[in-house]
UniProtKB/TrEMBL annotation:
Gene3D superfamilies: NAD(P)-binding Rossmann-like Domain (3.40.50.720)
Protein name: Nucleoside-diphosphate-sugar epimerase
Cited InterPro entries: Epimerase_deHydtase, NAD(P)-bd_dom_sf
SUPFAM superfamilies: NAD(P)-binding Rossmann-fold domains
UniProt keyword annotations, A-Z: NAD
Domain NAD-dependent epimerase/dehydratase: residue ranges: 9-206
Length: 286
């Protein structure tokens, strides 16, 4: 039997999953908001669809797996707004539905630990939107929903090296600030493991084993590149965009025991050091 994944918002994380499925003979349909991205998706053996724009009902009819990466806004979840009734009517057609959320739904814990059972208390607008979107997807009867709460994502083409090389990186110092992170290849392997072991209603944190202050990551990237460590700038006096500043509104350490215990996952990159070393080796063709 050929499985079909319909991927809404087929971006960075979904594109890391696709090769794993295509290698097993899957059909992958991915949506994009930009017509300019069609050739890129086609080159990766993805069947592109415009969303919004194209009629996605035939793709829904063909799919037995759904992945939702498209983010919500003040108006709510865009996929549910456009296709919620159709998805609800077909809820039992799907073997697995994955929703990519964020650890931002937990809010600020002053550097303390959170897990999947921690009460949700988002402190940012985007975190509130994600909490509302999670609840909206959970409210669809019979949908085999799996929620994945992602920490800060890095990987090929997305990491600290570019800014460090350009000399524009800064080590923003906010005492007690820690973030959790996840390499995109580990996101892909967790999603694949969940597809192989469906557990409707399950919620998983996706992060590595080593929550760390952001300035430590920048410093390590500079050490790997053998360039001077960027200057330290106090958070209170740092010039930052509102978006960048909002990331510092929350500090927490995220536990990932469930993906190991229930999905049997062994992280390829259990800390940012191993992940950054692998990215640099990749950049250098090793």
């Amino acid at each position: 039997m050929t499985h079909t994944l319909l991927s809404f918002g087929h971006g960075y994380s979904a594109r890391a999953l696709s090769p794993l499925l295509l290698a097993e003979g899957w059909r992958v349909i991915g949506t994009t908001r930009s017509p300019d991205k069609r050739p890129q998706l086609e080159a990766e053996s993805i069947e592109p669809r415009l969303f919004p724009g194209d009629d996605l009902r035939p793709a829904l009819e063909a799919a037995d797996h759904l992945l939702i990466s498209a983010g919500p806004d003040a108006a709510g979840d865009p996929v549910l707004a456009a296709l919620g009734q159709e998805i609800a009517a077909r809820a039992r057609q799907f073997a697995w539905v994955g929703y990519l959320s964020t650890t931002g739904v937990y809010g600020d814990h002053g550097g303390g630990w959170v897990d999947e059972d921690t009460p949700l208390a988002p402190s940012t607008r985007r975190g509130v939107w994600r909490q509302q979107a999670e609840a909206a997807w959970q409210a669809i009867p019979g949908l085999p929903l799996h929620i994945f709460r992602l920490a800060g994502i890095y990987g090929p083409g997305r990491g600290p090296f570019a800014k460090v090389r350009q000399g524009s990186a800064r080590r923003i110092i906010k005492p007690g600030q820690v973030f959790s992170r996840i390499h995109v290849e580990d996101i892909a392997q967790v999603l694949r493991a969940s597809i192989a072991r469906p557990d409707p209603g399950a919620i998983y944190n996706l992060c590595d084993d080593d929550p760390a202050p952001p300035q430590d990551v920048i410093a390590y990237a500079a050490e790997l590149l053998d360039v001077p460590i960027p200057e330290a700038v106090p958070f209170d006096s740092a010039e930052m965009t509102p978006m960048a500043r909002s990331f510092y509104a929350e500090s927490k350490r995220v536990r990932n025991d469930r993906i190991k215990r229930e999905l049997g996952v062994t992280l390829k990159y259990p800390d940012y050091r191993s992940g950054l070393r692998a990215l640099l080796d990749r950049d250098r063709g090793k």
